[in-house]
Design goal:
Layout (H helix, E strand, L loop, with lengths): L14 H7 L9 E8 L5 E3 L7 E4 H13 L4 E6 L17 H12 L4 E6 L13 E2 L2 E2 L1 H18 L3 E4 L6 H11 L6 E8 L6 H7 L19 H13 L3 E5 L5 H11 L3 E5 L1 H12 L5 H15 L3 E4 L2 H10 L1
Parallel strand pairs: 1-3, 1-4, 1-12, 4-5, 5-8, 8-9, 9-10, 10-11, 11-12
Antiparallel strand pairs: 2-3, 6-7
Helix pairs in contact: 2-3, 3-4, 4-5, 7-8, 9-10
The structure holds ligand PBG.
Length: 325
């Protein structure tokens, strides 16, 4: 088809036509809402670098889940900010830890809401690294043991999906094996499979108080320059038993989202991370961009690239608008 027979503008004439030929539509079912759960009661401590996001006590997190559920959001992912941090991140696998208590409360009050949990140590260690530090670096195999304990304690509390975000080698297989041995063969694993060492996590580290106290995460998270390696990472995680594979961050990594979806045809999650959120918020606040419009554009693009689900701090905003339609 050629011009003038073909005129692409014919189908862009008005919103009705545009809506009919639109290829990608976000749905509330695509959304996973991240929540930061901390100590205290009836407390919501705003995160300065993430307008609209707060560290919530367990009771307030439950309230937030009730609201999310009523807006049609199917899933939340929980991050814990413990009262006390130490070298081994012991609160990560304490059965009375903040995340474990939150899971139990949410499942008691809103059983149909899917509860996913971030399985990592960086929010729980005093040094801020994602594992056990030995000789100035994170020890892979020693860390796996603790991640397994953490995943099991989340499963015992009632988590539907555990999501290891540490990027240790072999952790998905170890977690799958331990879950199966303990009778949690129905608990799914969403692996942060291709997680890059990204500057876009800065506001999250503010929220989770998890900035590394020395060095950085480049010895375990991926080099942003690599794409083939991401496919290897995803393949390994699938072989080890991942049910859902994640690419993170999202916006600057849509080629990875696309390639992972094309190559494996597995359920793909993309994490629209804190920095992506905060940049939109900041520019919106300055009147430099239209926050609402950019939110829709970015999230639709992530889905267009191949993501089946999106972890986003905008989840409630999107769901509210979809609900009102
Ligand atoms: C690690 C973890 C991080 C994020 C999710 N899980 C931070 C990191 O690796 O430093 C980042 C999420 C975001 O930026 O929104 N447990």
């Amino acid at each position: 088809m050629e011009f003038p027979t073909y005129r692409a503008r014919r189908l862009r004439k008005n919103e009705k036509l545009r809506a009919m030929v639109r290829e990608t539509a976000l749905s509330a079912n695509d959304l996973i809402y991240p929540l930061f759960v901390g100590p205290g009661k009836n407390s919501a401590r705003p995160v300065p670098s993430m307008p609209g996001v707060a560290q919530l006590s367990v009771d307030r997190a439950v309230q937030e889940c009730e609201e999310a559920g009523s807006l049609g959001i199917p899933a939340v992912i929980l991050f814990g900010i413990p009262e006390r941090k130490d070298g081994q991140g012991s609160e990560a696998y304490a059965d009375d830890g903040v995340v474990q208590r939150a899971i139990q409360e949410i499942k008691r009050k809103i059983p149909e809401l899917l509860v996913m949990t971030d399985v990592c140590l960086c929010e729980y260690t005093d040094h801020g690294h994602c594992g056990v530090v030995k000789d100035g670096d994170v020890d892979n195999d020693a860390t796996i043991e603790l991640l397994v304990k953490e995943a099991l304690s989340h499963a015992r509390a009632g988590a539907d999906v555990v999501a290891p975000s540490d990027m240790m080698d072999g952790r998905v297989g170890a977690i799958r094996k331990a879950l199966d041995q303990d009778g949690f063969e129905q608990v799914a694993i969403m692996a942060y499979a291709a997680k890059y060492a990204s500057g876009f996590y800065a506001p999250f580290r503010d929220a989770a108080e998890s900035t590394p106290q020395f060095g950085d995460r480049r010895s375990y998270q991926m080099d942003p320059a690599n794409a083939d390696e991401a496919l290897r990472e995803v393949e390994l995680d699938i072989r080890e038993g991942a049910d859902i594979v994640m690419v993170k961050p999202a916006m600057a990594y849509l080629d990875i989202v696309y390639r992972v979806k094309q190559k494996f045809g597995y359920p793909v999650a993309a994490y629209n991370v804190s920095g992506e959120y905060s940049m939109i918020k900041a520019a919106g606040k300055n009147g430099w961009i239209d926050e609402r419009r950019i939110m829709w554009e970015v999230l639709t693009a992530i889905k267009r690239a191949g993501a089946d689900m999106i972890l986003t701090y905008f989840a409630k905003n999107v769901a509210r608008e979809l609900h009102a339609r």
